[in-house]
Amino acid sequence: MTSMTLSMLSREPHVITAGTAVLGEALDQQAVARIEVDWRPPLPGTAAALARVLADPRRERANATAVGRMVSARPMLVGVRPARDVLGLEPGTFLHAGPPITWERASGPMRGALIGAMLFEGLASSPKDAEDRLAAGSGITLDSCHHHRTVGPMAGLVSPSMWMLEVTDAEHGGTAYCSLNEGLGKVLRYGAYGPEVIDRLRWMGDVLGPVLRAALDRSGPLDLRALVAQALQMGDELHNRNRAATSLMVRELAPAIVEAAPEHAAEVLRFINGNDHFFLNAGMAAAKVSADAARDVPGSSLVVAMARNGTDFGIQVSGLGDRWFTGPAGVPDGLYLGAYGPADANPDIGDSTITETTGLGGFAMAAAPAIVRFVGGDVSDAVAATTSMYEITLAEHPAYQIPGLGFRGTPVGVDVTLVARTGVLPVVNTGIAGRVAGTGQVGAGLVSPPVEAFTAALEALAKA
Amino acid sequence: MNDLVEVRAGVYHDSVSLMRVSQALAGRPGVSVAIVAMATELNVGLACDAGFSVPPATPGDLLVAIRASSEDAVQEAACELERQLAARGAASGSRREEAPPRTTRSAARAAARSAARSGDATVALVSVPGEYAFLEAVDAVEAGISVMIFSDNVPVEQEILLKDRAREQGVLVMGPDCGTAVIGGAGLGFANVLRPGPVGVVAASGTGAQQVTSLLDLAGVGVSHLLGVGGRDLSAEVGGRSTIQALRALDADPATELIVLVSKPPAAEVARAVQDLGLGTKVVAALLGPGQDDLTTAVERVLGALGREVPEWPAWPASPAEHAVSEGTSGPAGDAVRGPLRGLYSGGTLCTEAALIAGTGEFTDFGDDEYTRGRAHPMIDPTLRLEALDAVESGVVLLDVVLGQGADPDPSARLAPGVARACERGVAVVVALVGTDGDPQGLRAQAARLNEAGAAVFTSNAAAARHARELARAHAGA
């Protein structure tokens, strides 16, 4: 005979209640310890798919495996190299942020960035010429960064001559890339393509990239997991605030920069110091290599990419391969620079949501009290934003912790079934690009992903 | 007439809470109709039938439809609605920084985080609408927590899947459609307040288990645990998956000296599987069906097995007028009481037992899905049964009143006047009162109120059914 013990028979009762309030109240009247679920019906039309996906015998283990890989990744910054070398990009090939898009459907900032990249690569003589060639399309190939182990902030344009941060995962062996951050204001990633933008890109290719490569060769790989963990405890959420992480990175690299290139050290260090977001791109590559480690686990409902191209917001799911599930990109709600206002804002754009995909950015808002104005005003709003993300995520990050929450790990690993069940959407922090090509950044704020991206992925899981 | 119709997007409250709010509004002066409900197809249909024009809405929205005699009355009702909903929000909400969990999964994690204070959760009680119950129950099982599924309308494939996963995890799935459980002294769902003691109960029948444990309690015998398994568990399809788990668990429980299994007669192969468990603890079966002992007799067998005296089961005979009828003599209302036996039940098993014993009459189980769709269970809301009682013109009415946690806090408050009206019409009323002296409603106070109203009251449903049968025969023979 098999013996069977139920711990509930020998322990003090402690009951979770979900549903009818009177049944919970009856337990309160008996003074039984109780946790009440604030239950609401799932998103309309998802009940059948949810039941099917939750019944999948692979799901629980698949999700544990996938999110386990995501949080155990050890991203190391190992090199800085031109895109043509590391990605094998041919002239005329451009990678961009978000799910795949055509010139016809591209928004203002995406078009602006493409024009700038054409000028930078010497494929057009003027912005007008670039536009004509892009519209004609011959000799031009556009593809999603995510299809090439790459991520890019905002427009996320990558062309062959740009220099890329190369990040490897010391735990699982993956590699991911991200371009170098140009700074704020009129920059290519926000769709600006004026002469100062192109000149800066040239300098980055001629000086910044080679100097950083030489410095890294001297210093050895930079442990980004450790750096992110420290920055979180210094008030960054690693998407809209990268000040601490950038400072830490400079501290790590400065001696090697000075040794490797004394003649350029001052201008390189001045450039990095002048840009609080310099670390963002390294953080994004780290996030990308971590998220990629979680890909392709059959049966897993874990989101492994969230990305926007300025027109569509798309997600990819571990158990569903490289398929994109998209909905219209929303216009962020935020704070505006100078005289810009909501009418100037482009819909959401960029691969930087890879930070939220791995539990940073909006998910780690509680770590960044300095920028709580983005989420509504006070620290309790930031804490509420982070706390709500635990409802839709599979794990708490073992290394990325939030001091203000008692060093609780950040909420990491969005599960599409939990999004459908709770109707809670990922909190995404973002910069806001001007809607007219060539404008640049107009603000920063918060955006909600389109719910249909998640329900479409759920339907696909139910059929998988 | 003044109408107020509103759809509030994304505002959710459970149906029982909303019915309470609706009831409070409908009871206000000048208000003729008050519907406060989730905008399901059914509820929107109800509102449309009542003549309201309802704007487009989804089941995730709250529908408010109020009709009153004056604009002022509508406005006052609207204010009261805000007050009631705000009170509900305040009761369930807490500080924004500590938002309540939105899923059972999240609640299990929250419990584990606060484990130092009150320990991991031991059991989850799921009473969400049936089509969603599986989602919450899976969360509990995956978190290693036993789960009681109060919800009905859960597909049997989902039940089997849950029970198989539960066995792998070493936890128990009670239900679906499990109305009662008592675990470690805590009553879940509809549960009588029972003294602790040596009898463990495994029940595929909620009200059957309540009858058995209430009678044991009245005989001074307590219960270690009452584990529900859901009405389908002993079917050939489900194969007794949870019954087997529950029997083994009680067998291993040091506090349990004897086990009672309350069920309809199981499928033959399931009965064999259960018998072949080779338990060290004696199992007494209380099976409901033709040719089986009634539940009261089964309880008496349990008392015998424990070497305990069988007491006189408490009963309160009816007032002389009803007595006169029962003895076939012609009283003042003697001629009027002729008529059939009507059984108006809230408990399905009690209804079945009574119908078997009576062998005649028309029995209705108001706890059946047909009557509970879109409204509260008759153990909480007696409206439908009262309407049925008021419609009986003659003969004998047999009804059950089930006390305990979760049930109507004072059932006789509304039933006793209905009983009195029926008796005035010459109807003989017999009540099976299922409860214990520990129940919050007060067994003896409820019995006294119903008895004063003219009903004969029995704590044994079988005794009540026999009495009703005799009365009906007396009528037929008079």
UniProtKB/TrEMBL annotation, chain A:
It comes from Microtetraspora glauca. InterPro entries: AllG-like, OXTCase_su_AllG_h-dom. It holds the Pfam family AllG. Transmembrane segments: none annotated. This is DUF1116 domain-containing protein.
